[in-house]
Amino acid sequence: MKKNLQRLLAAVMLLALCTACVKEESSVPKPSVIKQEPSAPAEEISIYPLTGLPSENLGNRAFAVMINNHPAARPQSGLHKADIVYEVLAEGSITRFLAIYQSELPDMIGPVRSAREYYVDLSDGYNAFFVSHGWSPQARELLEDGNHDFLNGMFYDGTLFQRADFRKAPHNSYISSEHIKKGAELNKADFSQRPDPLPFMKAVEVNKLQGKSGAEAIIRYDKSDTFESQFIYDKQSQTYFRYSTEQTKDLESDEAVAPSNVLIAEMTHEIMDKQGRRSINLTEGGKAILLQHGVSREVEWRNADGRILPYLNGEQVKLVPGKTWISIVPHLNQVTIH
Asked: Which of 7-21, 30-44, 272-286 is most confident?
């Protein structure tokens, strides 16, 4: 009987011990499990297709405007807001601008001048709605071929196009962005299709640019200074200020023309009539100089689906985000780089 009592006491003690262990174990808080929601993908930043700059609204179709560069037409209006500007010889030593707008729409643009067929070809690379006041016979034939949307001030003088009273014709024709859109509607032109984007560098790529000094470029089209273009790099804005006898600024706002990329392309020029009109070979490719971020590089230009773009070692060179200026010259020996 004594042994049975000892066994009973041992069983009771074992049961008490197990119960205490269970209570002790249950009193220890269990580690909480946090259910993590899958992280949202990083939001992509929208950029304008022709400048690579951030945008909340990607805009609509680009439009290209022929802008006068005669001394009597300076300073121009709206030139500083163009995403891309081509500077090309017209007749003699006179250059004109083809300004392509997409990211910014200036209130007033001009003075607007007449077209030549190679300006039309340059605008085609961006499927741009083409705006001019007048045209050469070759440009007229090209624009009226049924494949181009255009607006000519010859047919809207005094309505969509306005004459400024402070300048004399033919240096006084102006048009607003709103009137360009209205003209597109009148001509039933689709204004919704955005241009395909250009390739742009990231900030880290811009800071790694290497090459010769490209702080200044001087481009001469004849022996006078009238149509000489000068680009000087500004470290603070990281853009190139343009000068032609004086700094190129907007007539209304006094804002400077300040591209981030300056491409100087050598192309074959030929005189084709008694008026001195030219033909320019936009397709053969050739030598060019590219200025970016204070650096100058010898590159080649190619016509990529109608766009004049820089290439190096067979690879397309990315642009620095910002505006682009393209000067087309007969010979690169007319260019001085410092």
From this structure: 272-286
- Say what the pTM is: 0.87
Instruction: Report the sign of the C-alpha dihedral through residues 139, 140, 145, 150, in that order.
Output: positive
Using pLDDT thresholds of 50, 70 and 90, give the confidence band for residue 44: low
Q: At CA 228, angle to CA 226 and CA 232, rounded to 5? A: 130
Q: How far apart are CA 149 and CA 143, in angstroms?
A: 8
H-helix or E-strand spanning residue 178:
helix 177-186
Closest to 64 in 3D by CA, of 118, 16, 5:
118
**Domain ranges across the chain:** 63-337
Residue 333 structure tokens:
């020996």
Residues 330 and 332: their CA atoms lie apart, in Å, by 7
Query: Which of the four pLDDT bands, split at 50, 70 and 90, describes residue 278?
Result: very high
Q: Given the DSSP bridges, would you call strands 324-329 and 261-266 parallel, antiparallel or unpaired?
A: parallel
The yes or no reply on domain 63-337 and CATH 3.50.90.10 is yes
How many Cβ atoms from other residues are within 10 Å of residue 261's Cβ? 25
- Rounded-to-integer distance, Cα 55 and Cα 37, Å: 30
